[in-house]
Amino acid sequence: MRRYGKHTDEDDIRSRPNRKGNRPRTHIRPKHEDAAEGMVLTVDRGRLTCLVDDRVVMAMKARELGRKAAVVGDRVALVGDLSGKKDTLARIVRIAERTSVLRRTADDDDPYERVVVANADQLAVVTALADPEPRPRLIDRCLVAAYDGGLTPLLVLTKSDLAPPDKLLELYGDLDIPYVVTSREELENGDAADRVRAQLEGRVTAFVGHSGVGKTTLVNALVPEERRRTTGHVNAVTGRGRHTTTSALALPLAGAGGWVVDTPGVRSFGLAHIDPSRVINAFPDLVPGTEGCPRACSHDEPDCALDQWAADGHADPARLYSLRRLLSTRERTEED
């Protein structure tokens, strides 16, 4: 039997053909330098709807991206058929670095985080003042996720015709969060949409809230040409609405240069992925006081230097209380 060395020069050796074709195998991936830039508008069962220039293009993720998934709001590079015509399909070959990420887990014991929206500037937390009753713990959790992901929070309180907003606003007054209060009548005549739109101009805003609070109704008022089905009723026994928005969808805010991202209603907002040390960055008046904290300080323990920082008048004690309330929200259920 003939044996050949690694560097043999015999010309009678034939290479084994590629069974899948005649193209030689290679590990070098194409650079796709001519790829077009786009934005992911929604994701449905592996198909991604993207906006490329002024065209809506259907696409799928390229194999070379591996397990890296694109989500609503991602800036992506696409190749293939970009005409946007029916039954055409492009490929997403690159996902740009994200400027912000809104993430959640199913619960606080779930190790698998889910990216809800990428590259959003603002998180609008929508909650009803009644029918269903507001859930402050869920609001707290959304705020923690916003601070951790680099989003600016906005409170949108609906159904003020059923209950006054004063008590809830007092709870978040020390956080200096901008807010808009709306009623059903104002939603119908357009006044509420105008006030909310003023907070969204020039920004990408993700809307979150549990079912039945009027989130999708508000989105329909903001983007009337892209109306989505609304819940219609709240269960009289559980106080919860039915899920009607089943996938996140980015919609252009006409005349305001911004985007609205409607997300499915949530019944829980897990924070298993949150690093508590990043939440303090949302409190710039308290950050200098952490220099005297012990290593790996949770900012909610006896030796925390923030207590003395506030006692010396460098920060409002109410702000420190608000920080600790948010940090402790992982130890409390959303039904509290």
Strand content: 15-25%
Please give the radius of gyration in angstroms: 25 Å
- Bulk shape: globular
Spatial arrangement of strands, main beta sheet: 10-9-8-11-13-12
* Category from helices, strands and their pairing: alpha/beta
Terminal-residue CA separation: 79 Å
Order of helices and strands: EEEEEEEEHEHEHHEHEEHHH
Reported for the largest beta sheet, the result is: 6 strands, mixed
Walk me through what this model shows:
The termini are far apart. The chain is built from eight helices and 13 strands. The longest helix is centred in the middle third of the chain and has 14 residues, at 136-149. The protein is an alpha/beta fold and 336 residues long. α2 links the parallel β9 and β10 (179-181). The model is unreliable at 230-244 (pLDDT under 50). The strands form three sheets. It has a six-stranded mixed β-sheet with strand order 10-9-8-11-13-12. 20% of the residues lie in helices and 22% in strands. The relative contact order is 0.12. It is globular and about 75 Å long.
